[in-house]
């Protein structure tokens, strides 16, 4: 009976599907365990072998936990809104829903082929109306909430309205817009409804505001920072500029401190936590106000070094700062405007990363030092960002390297004074940026103080004169929530006199309308501006034709859509109760599952997705909808599986292609080669296939310079990518070697968190292991398992493996388990083990890693049903306790034979047995040894 992986894997995949083997219950008495993979986006390219790495790891844990008696929730779904599908729709005219559906079908086919234990009954898709109706509802909750600093949580907006009506806003502590006018209760109650709505917009957790955004004219949409690479759009490589637009934003900044503190309560890698800490960017310092000469304006600056205020020699504003246009003098206007325009073409990320380029322009304006009343020139420079702090810095060149470089670069030009030194330290070569080891000088009433005492003193004095106060600042900015795209969640709102009105929950979802074109309209409106049925009838509570808009009963709906992260910021909760039509999840389901026990995904989501998810979870907890503060208890970032690219080497004129070993000292250009035209094991190019390949038709008549009659390609490890032609399709591996081989091999490649290269040549060893495993149970005639009692050595091999595999899964060290399986099978093969008492537990041990063969082995052993919930073997120490020792017996240090003796013998007993052994007598030939050295359990050595 041979091992045919094709039949076995198809059989058990069908069995699992028909029997809903992995469906989780929301009412189980078992302890719960929730293991989740990061939401995949279904691209048209399908999966390559790098994608399943994290899924295989999570599946091993999910299967292991089922064996341990847990009720395991291991769901899967699709983050199916997004820019790629929209761009494809623009290019082809196909509806994004159609291509997304086709892509999902392809993903599902591939995922099923690998044998994952997903609970497919809970599948969700963010682009389905029955899903995004709840995303729309969460948006409405955010709109109807404000952040109460006193209670340190989000509360219903009605509680704020009640405070306004009773006492006005003078004593309200809220996260809100800056510079809100103070009003009394009487004034609030006298305001019109429109006036009250405008004020409330300044407090709501999602709000409309004019915001600096990354605008991509070619794509016609706003892009998030992580959608921009090297100043151009990741999708298509189009230029991106900074532009002010009225957008929906979310006050994630309200949660900055809680997001920071929450990191201490979760089991994530330190590198991911540090990424989030840096993104949140907490700074403790002071807010300082500088009056602008000849203007009523003030420049507010946040600084972490208020003790250096007497060292300020100039100020720098971000080019986008709202005061730039107001304070720039006529003489400097042209230069400033040109600089502002140039800066708009660079992303914030690019500006932050570029520490070498120094550029800026003097505005011609001067600010007034709050203590010395000295005139301080005001510059603009792209190293200052509008979105960080106040978008302005007080430049202290003697204490800051960037200010120092800026001052020296513009030294001697109009508006750049000489550097002042306020430290008793030399700054002739560089700024002194330390917070210790100095005394302040040239600093008026701060002279002689250090950093700590100087900071305390200056804040006291700033507060006395009303020019500043102590302040904690965060780099984290409110998140722009509008996208000028078609393929995204529609906002559930319409506008009355320019003010947003939310649509009642019972009328959701507001379904994405049909449009003829997926591009922005001719007058620059988002793609939804092309919709003809996109107006809200407030009497009939339905979407109607735009022609009916009368701004009395029928009003315009929002034309923007939500960003891609909207649906992925709460999806783990939908899995808990995926078919609930009324609520995003029932209270009982949320209470039972609570949050995710293990989350596995790529480190590229360190800030964006993970911060937004934590923000939404905390918000829903505040409002009583979520049971826990943090969504993901433990997070593991899997490393990449890298592709082994192949190259041919062309001459300058492209007429000659040199084999890899012949390129030394030649002027050649490497060209990526499709892996389909090479032998992946021997690295030999199939020249005829290469010539016939449409990508390489230009080389059909080229001369191929061979080595030993073969063209050997070059190989290099790179990121697996279609553009590098180094993608390996998991379907091919499953077809040729089997899904169990793929699963084991991906784990065998190395530690889960590390990047590792794919090498198809190595997969044959894993395939051979599974065949060896099979032959322990079956020969050509069928089952060979006996009921005989195993030997001590057999038990020892098994229990070593139980111990190792259990520890490895608990520690997520899956690669070393595969090695242990191989060792164990080799040992059992040598021991001629076909004993049920060993082979039944062995099938269970293998089951999380290679589930198809494990199911077949379990069935072959005579069991009914699936192996998936059978109890995992337990390690017993007694089987590893040695009762005997095979001693090497040496004569004058040279080992001559071995003898097996009980370990509990004394040295005298051992000596007596050894001396009586005929092999000893043969070695001694009648002599008496001078010395007999015996260390029980270790050595026997006869000397002389």
TrEMBL record:
PROSITE patterns: AA_TRNA_LIGASE_I. SUPFAM superfamilies: Anticodon-binding domain of a subclass of class I aminoacyl-tRNA synthetases, Nucleotidylyl transferase, ValRS/IleRS/LeuRS editing domain. It comes from the Bacteria. The keyword Nucleotide-binding applies. GO terms for biological process: leucyl-tRNA aminoacylation. Coiled coil: none annotated. Keywords: Aminoacyl-tRNA synthetase, ATP-binding, Cytoplasm, Ligase, Nucleotide-binding, Protein biosynthesis. Residues 794-906 form the Methionyl/Valyl/Leucyl/Isoleucyl-tRNA synthetase anticodon-binding domain. GO terms for molecular function: aminoacyl-tRNA deacylase activity; ATP binding; leucine-tRNA ligase activity. It is found in: Cytoplasm. Belongs to the class-I aminoacyl-tRNA synthetase family. This is Leucine--tRNA ligase. It comes from Flavobacterium amnicola. The lineage of its organism: Bacteria, Pseudomonadati, Bacteroidota, Flavobacteriia, Flavobacteriales.
């Amino acid at each position: 009976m041979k091992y045919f992986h094709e039949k076995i894997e198809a059989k058990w995949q069908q069995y699992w599907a028909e029997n809903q083997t992995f469906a989780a219950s929301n009412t189980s008495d078992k302890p719960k365990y929730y293991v989740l993979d990061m939401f995949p986006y279904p691209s048209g390219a399908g999966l390559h072998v790098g994608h399943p790495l994290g899924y295989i790891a999570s599946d091993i844990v999910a299967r292991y936990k089922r064996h341990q008696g847990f009720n395991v929730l291991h769901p899967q779904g699709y983050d199916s809104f997004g820019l790629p599908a929209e761009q494809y729709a623009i290019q082809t005219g196909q509806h994004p829903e159609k291509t997304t559906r086709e892509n999902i079908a392809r993903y599902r086919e591939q995922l099923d082929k690998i044998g994952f234990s997903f609970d497919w009954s809970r599948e969700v898709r963010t682009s389905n109306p029955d899903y995004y109706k709840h995303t729309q509802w969460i948006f409405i909750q955010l709109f109807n909430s404000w952040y109460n600093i006193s209670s340190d949580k989000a509360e219903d907006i009605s509680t704020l309205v009640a405070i306004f009506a009773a006492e006005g806003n003078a004593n309200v502590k809220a996260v809100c817009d800056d510079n809100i006018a103070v009003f009394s209760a009487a004034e609030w109650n006298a305001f019109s409804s429109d006036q009250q709505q405008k004020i409330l917009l300044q407090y709501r957790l999602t709000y409309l505001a004019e915001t600096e955004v990354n605008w991509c004219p070619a794509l016609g949409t706003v892009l998030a920072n992580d959608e921009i690479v090297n100043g151009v759009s990741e999708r298509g490589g189009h230029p991106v500029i900074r532009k002010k637009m009225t957008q929906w934003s979310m006050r994630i900044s309200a949660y900055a401190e809680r997001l920071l503190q929450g990191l201490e309560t979760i089991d994530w890698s330190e590198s991911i936590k540090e990424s989030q800490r840096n993104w949140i960017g907490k700074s403790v310092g002071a807010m300082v106000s500088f009056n602008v000469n000849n203007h009523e304006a003030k420049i507010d600056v946040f600084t972490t070094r208020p003790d250096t205020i007497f060292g300020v020699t100039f100020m720098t504003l971000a080019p986008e700062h709202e005061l730039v246009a107001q304070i720039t003098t006529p003489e400097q206007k042209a230069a400033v405007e040109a600089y502002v325009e140039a800066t708009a073409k660079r992303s914030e990320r690019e500006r932050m990363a570029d520490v070498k380029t120094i550029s800026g322009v003097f505005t011609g304006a001067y600010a007034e030092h709050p203590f010395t009343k000295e005139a301080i020139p005001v510059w603009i420079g792209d190293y200052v960002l509008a979105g960080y702090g106040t978008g302005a810095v007080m430049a202290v060149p003697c204490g800051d390297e960037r200010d120092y470089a800026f001052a020296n670069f513009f030294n001697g030009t109009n508006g750049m004074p000489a550097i002042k030194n306020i430290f008793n330290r030399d700054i002739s070569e560089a700024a002194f940026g330390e917070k210790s080891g100095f005394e302040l000088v040239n600093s008026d009433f701060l002279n002689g103080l250090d950093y700590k005492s100087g900071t305390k003193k200056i804040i006291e004095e700033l507060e006395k004169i009303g020019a500043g106060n102590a302040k904690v600042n965060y780099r984290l900015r409110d998140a722009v929530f509008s996208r000028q795209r078609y393929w995204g969640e529609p906002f559930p709102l319409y506008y009355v006199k320019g003010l947003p009105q939310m649509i009642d929950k019972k009328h959701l979802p507001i379904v994405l309308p049909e449009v003829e074109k997926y591009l922005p309209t001719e007058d620059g409106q988002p793609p939804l501006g092309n919709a003809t049925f996109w107006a809200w009838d407030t009497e009939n509570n339905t979407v109607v034709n735009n022609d009916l808009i009368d701004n009395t009963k029928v009003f315009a709906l929002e034309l923007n859509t939500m960003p891609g992260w909207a649906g992925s910021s709460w999806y783990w909760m939908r899995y808990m109760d995926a078919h609930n039509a009324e609520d995003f999840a029932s209270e009982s389901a949320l209470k039972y599952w609570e949050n995710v026990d293990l989350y596995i995904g790529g480190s590229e989501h360190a800030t964006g997705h993970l911060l937004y998810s934590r923000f939404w979870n905390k918000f829903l907890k505040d409002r009583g909808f979520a049971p826990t503060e943090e969504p993901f208890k433990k997070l593991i970032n899997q490393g990449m599986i890298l592709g082994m690219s192949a190259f041919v080497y062309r001459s300058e004129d492209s007429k000659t292609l040199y084999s890899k070993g012949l390129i030394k000292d030649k002027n050649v250009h490497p060209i990526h080669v499709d892996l389909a035209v090479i032998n992946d094991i021997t690295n030999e190019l199939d020249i005829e296939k290469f010539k016939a390949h449409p990508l390489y038709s230009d080389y059909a008549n080229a001369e191929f310079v061979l080595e030993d009659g073969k063209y050997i390609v070059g190989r290099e490890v790179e990121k697996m990518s279609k553009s590098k032609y180094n993608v390996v399709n998991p379907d091919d591996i499953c077809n040729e070697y089997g899904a169990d081989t793929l699963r084991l091999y991906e784990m065998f490649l190395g530690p889960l968190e590390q990047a590792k290269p794919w090498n198809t040549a190595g997969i044959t060893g894993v395939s051979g292991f599974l065949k060896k495993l099979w032959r322990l149970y079956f020969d050509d005639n069928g089952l060979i398992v006996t009921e005989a009692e195993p030997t001590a050595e057999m038990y020892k091999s098994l229990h070593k493996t139980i111990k190792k595999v259990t520890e490895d899964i608990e520690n997520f060290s899956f690669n070393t388990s595969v090695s242990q399986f191989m060792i164990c099978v080799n040992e059992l093969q040598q021991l001629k083990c076909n004993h049920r008492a060993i082979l039944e537990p062995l099938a269970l041990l293998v089951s999380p890693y290679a589930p198809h063969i494990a199911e077949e082995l379990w069935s072959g052993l005579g069991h009914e049903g699936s192996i998936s919930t059978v109890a995992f073997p337990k390690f017993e120490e007694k089987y590893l306790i040695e009762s005997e020792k095979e001693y090497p017996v040496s004569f004058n240090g040279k080992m001559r034979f071995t003898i097996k003796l009980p370990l509990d013998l004394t040295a005298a007993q051992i000596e007596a047995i050894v001396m009586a052994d005929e092999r000893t007598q043969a070695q001694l030939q009648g002599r008496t040894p001078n010395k007999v050295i015996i260390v029980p359990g270790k050595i026997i050595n006869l000397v002389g």
